Amino acid sequence: MHPEIINIHNLIATRGITTWLSKVCPIDKNLIPVLLKINNKTYTVHVMDEYEDLNHYNPVLNFIIVFRALVTLHESEDFLIWCKQEGLNPDNHKLLNYYKDTISSIDEIKSCFPNNEIDYFISDLDFQLNAGVMQFLRM
To answer: Record's superkingdom (predicted)?
Structure first.
């Protein structure tokens, strides 16, 4: 088995991480709301699922999608840059509220990871090119 998958399985087990599709209305037509439970706390994370990975109902794949979305949001310099990176309309006030709420929760989420840094264990290149572990998970 791929070491990245083992690392994800270990973190899922250690932190009690679960993800499932949320029944709340999407805040944007390009985003899918996913509930993330980690350390007995639940967050709503709105993710882009351009490769329809959530249709696989795979906890490891869902982990990657959710935490990749959180890293992208966290690493953006501000709301407008995040919207531009993700192709979202910055005039959408629901997006702004989501951005602010999520940014305020990032430190709490980061504390669940070694070195207090969110890690989804897969390279962006493998994700985008459907290579390596991503190709294996999407089969």
So the answer is: Bacteria
